[in-house]
Amino acid sequence: MQSTDFPRSLFGRICISRVTTALIVGTLLLKITGRAQETENVQQSLQAPKPPSIGEHMGTPTSLPDLVREAEQKNPQVSAALHGWQASRNVSKQVSALPETQLSVQQFSVGSPRPFAGYSNSEFAYIGFGVSQDIPYPGKRGLRARVADHEAESVEAQADSIRRTVVGNLKMVYFRLGYIQQTLEVLQKSDSLLNQVQEATEARYRVGQGNQQDVLKAQLQHTKILQEVAHHHQEEGLLQAQIKQLLGRPQESPDILADTLSIRALPYSLVELLQRTRELNPDVRSKQASIHAQEAQVELAQKNFRPDLNVQYSYQHTNGDSRDYYMATFGIRLPNRGRQRAELAEAQQNQERAKKELDAESDHVLSEVQQQYVRVKTSEERLKIYSDGLVPQSVATFRSALSAYQSNRQDFESLLSGFLDVLNLDLEYQSELADHESALADLERLTGMDLR
Questions:
Q1: What is the tens place of the pLDDT at every residue in 277-332?
Q2: How many whole angstroms separate alpha carbon 211 and alpha carbon 216?
Q3: Radius of gyration over every alpha carbon of the chain, rounded to an integer in angstroms
Q4: What is the mean pLDDT of residues 143-160?
Q5: Longest dimension (CA), the chain
Q6: What is the number of structural domains in the chain?
Q7: Does a structural domain hold residue 2?
Q8: Which of 45, 50, 100, 434 could be bridged to 179 by S-S, CB 3.0 to 4.6 A?
Q9: CATH no. for residue 335?
């Protein structure tokens, strides 16, 4: 019995050992299979089709001077202002001309209301012709012409101001469009750098040195770049609509590709810019012309105290038995001195108002020139810091971080921070460059100088 029980117990132990071993091996196989499946899922997600890359603009860039000439020729606001100035040039001839000459015909009948009754048998019946002409006091017509000429100069300066405003707005939109189009290229380059980060993350994950969270963070950053690209496309569409409006082009016309933005140095000092502004700024010139017009208006109001003249001449023809009559009349139109004193006071007050408006406009424009000059100079310094320091340093830092990460000597957060520094500093540089060019465009509008 004992010998029989021993083999049975041994057999039972052997069976239990085999079952246990099978369970252990199965568990290990399940873990290995799960780990392999997880790795395969991550690899599939890394190898999944990516959204389309950032497309590059096709076509030939259009230079800004070409667009400026087009806007000056086709913009409706500029054309309307030009027609208004041309219309004002004809006012001088109107106000300096003599008053309209009056012609008159008289017919005097006798004995009956019928025309020409008694003309053949009465010396009182007649037919007459006359002419009358008002003659302003000498000097009034010339003063009226001076007032109109100076007002036309003011209108011309206003038209120039409208033209410069349109051109300035065009330059602003053009520079912003160039910034958007260039930052799309920056995002494309950053997306390529991010691909290197993803490859490094994937490589570390495959050998068990990284984790899935790093891979997902890299993918998240890639999606953020795509979102930023979509936002840029939206803003580019809005800018295209604005620039076509300024050019007077149909909205369905082809889009415009801007030239690559590059920094322009400011070749003038602040003193030179302020002096040119005083001389050439259209708003200041308009106010100066208004002062001259008001000065002439004051002289005209003083001259209106002088009387105007009237000259008449008439001819009367009677029947054949009587001689014809000839009559000349000279008249003087006396001014209402109370009304003329009020007119003079009004003209003097308008003259003082024009002077104050000139002072206010000059102070405003010169202050704006000062501000834009500071913006340009500060922007030049910042651009130099970006181009010579921050941007190349960020790129070197990122390259070093990527190499250290690939060698398992640095964590993913430091690598991602270095990548974001490269992206953000590059975008900041492009934004600063667009702001610099916009400030120069403002100075061009204010001073009338081409700073290219």
A1: 999 999 999 999 999 999 999 999 999 999 999 999 999 888 767 788 899 999 99
A2: 9
A3: 45
A4: 94
A5: 188
A6: 1
A7: no
A8: 434
A9: 1.20.1600.10
